[in-house]
Amino acid sequence: MQRTVGLVAAGALVGVLISALGTMSIGADTGAGPERTRTQLDSRAARAMPPEPPPAITYVPPEGGASAPKGEKEGKTTKGACTVDPSYHDKDTSGMTSSAAQAWTKAKEEATSKGVTLCAHEAKRSVAQQKAEFDEALERYGGDRSLAEKYVLPPAKSLHVSGLAVDVQPRASAAWLERTAGALGWCRRYANEPWHFEYHKDYASSGCPALKPHP
User: Fold this and answer.
1) pTM
2) Which residues lie closer than 8 Å to 186 by C-beta, 6 or more apart?
3) In three state form, how does the secondary structure of the chain look?
4) What string of pLDDT tens digits covers the 215 residues of the chain?
């Protein structure tokens, strides 16, 4: 009798073990166990990784923007747009002083003969226009006047208002004018503004003065 009970108990134990092994096998076949472990490891690794730094903020001086002329439509060049790059203007320079306007006309003719197109993205500005530009820069730089003046001058200091400055675009055209080294009466004046040129009659004979770091 005792032997029979023992055999029954042993059989029951074997059945439990077989059932347990079957459950483990199913878990292994489905990948549920390893998948949970992998997910946990991935989650821990993600928490351990430092967050990515925010992208650097680059401030673009207002005078250096490449805003398209109003009315610009894709595939078309509107009146007043630079013919070689419609993202820039080519403004009328008749508001300059007569000597500067003549020198600009001569520079454009010389450039054309070399296969280069000079566009006057900005030329003569009124006091109100220059003040608006300066006020925008002042707001952009948190009211710091000295910092704002590194990018846009107030009306009293601007040669755009005086009719003796032009912002040349596109950049390759400005680089060509810079290489003339003042021979055409125009010189780049600021290291942080490769587009900004100023006129002086003496540049043709004396060459360009050293660049200033900023206005």
Assistant:
1) 0.65
2) 103, 104, 107, 166, 177, 180, 197, 198, 199, 203
3) CHHHHHHHHHHHHHHHHHHHHHHHHHHHHHCHHHHHHHHHHHHHHHHHCCCCCCCCCCCCCHHHCCCCCCCCCCCCCCCCECCCCCCCECCCCCCCCHHHHHHHHHHHHHHHHCCCCCEEEECCCCHHHHHHHHHHHHHHCCCCHHHHCCCCCCHHHCHHHHCCEEEEECHHHHHHHHHCCCCCCEEEEECCEEEEEEECCCHHHHCCCCCECCC
4) 444 434 334 444 445 444 444 444 434 444 444 444 444 444 444 444 434 433 333 334 444 443 444 333 344 446 789 999 999 999 988 899 999 999 999 999 999 999 999 999 999 999 999 999 999 999 999 999 999 999 999 999 999 999 999 999 999 999 999 999 999 999 999 999 999 999 999 999 999 999 999 99
Residues 147, 145: Cα–Cα separation, whole Å: 5
- Amino acid at site 159: L
